[in-house]
Amino acid sequence: LRLSGPLRVVTGGLFAAFQRHLGRLMAYGSIAETGFSLLALSLDSRLGVPILFLMIPARALGLAVWSLSLTVIKEHAPSLRFGMSRGMLRVAPFAGTGIILATLSVGTFPLLAGFPARLALWEELARASLPSALWMGVGIIGLLTSAFRSLAVISMAEEYTSWEPRESFVQMLMLGLGVIGLFLLGLFPQLMQFFLSNLPAMFEHLGQ
């Protein structure tokens, strides 16, 4: 687990950093997410298992927002390739925002859902295995790079191009709620503590 986790995080992060397809970015983000989970399992079960379960809501919500945003973008863009997705923020602002925030959440950006659990993981990993913590940092840098590259692409439009949102009310509502959820879980991770407090006890032998 200790070897597989950093490898998946670094692979997902670095491949995402150089990717030029919005859909494949989500795939590499999922690989990195799996790596974070394996890193949590590589820790002492008393520390790693609670961190693992703290990651679950953030991961589920982030992937849900990400996949819905990609679906909306695909409806209005010829392709999800960077060259075909330029300026989509002006056509689908909620979906564009959802993609960027979901990517940043996976990349451990402060204030977003993925940050609290990843920070706890990083701190514990640095105590247990400094090389693994450093490799985790490399993967995070790659994921953040992919987020800012995506932002540059979808916000890039011809001069004087007007804003013409084409998303439906339901799409805007669902994406809006998802984005709010990403911030709530990032700012108040204790919101899920009540629901997750008994889960680690059910898997007390996980990671041993």
Mean pLDDT: 88
The poorly predicted ranges are none
Q: Give the C-alpha Rg.
A: 18 Å
Shape from CA axes? globular
As a percent range, the share of helical residues equals over 70%
Terminal CA distance: 11 Å
**Percentage of residues in strands:** under 5%
- The secondary-structure element order is HHHHHHHHH
| Largest sheet composition | none
The count of DSSP E runs of length 2 or more, i.e. the number of strands, is 0
- How many helices? The count is 9
Question: What does this entry show, briefly?
Answer:
This protein has 208 residues and is an all-alpha fold. Helices cover 71% and strands 0% of the residues. α3 (45-76) packs across α5 (115-128), α3 (45-76) packs antiparallel against α7 and α4 (93-106) runs parallel beside α7 (169-187).
Please name the defining characteristics of this protein.
mainly alpha; 208 residues; globular
Protein model, in words:
This protein has 208 residues and is an all-alpha fold. It contains 9 helices and no strands. It has helices at residues 4-17, 22-42, 45-76, 93-106, 115-128, 130-155, 169-187, 193-196, 199-202. Helix 1 runs parallel beside helix 6. The termini are close together.
Question: What topology emerges from the helices and strands here?
Answer:
Layout: H1 4-17, H2 22-42, H3 45-76, H4 93-106, H5 115-128, H6 130-155, H7 169-187, H8 193-196, H9 199-202
Helix pairs in contact: 1-2, 1-6, 2-3, 2-6, 3-4, 3-5, 3-7, 4-6, 4-7, 5-6
